[in-house]
Amino acid sequence: MSKTISLGGGIELVGFDELSLAHLTVVKKLVGAYARTFTDQSKDYDSLKISLLANNPYQIESMCRKQSAKSKHDNVFMALGDSLNKLEKKLEK
What we know:
2 helices, alpha+beta, 32% strand, Double Stranded RNA Binding Domain, 93 residues
């Protein structure tokens, strides 16, 4: 069963406990930067949930305000960035 890592500010990472500490540190910084962008863009930001669905290739799902976006890539950071970019575009509408 995947563990949930709570970062504060309504940010949750699910399944990322499988990553190395170095990778997890970069993931936290990247997610935090996007969360700041989402809060700046919207008054009704409440939470951001990022789930690592699979490894090799990495499958990631990002969810915020009843919107979601998925991405798949061999590199965890590329998958995460792509998923968050897609989510950002959906939230701008």
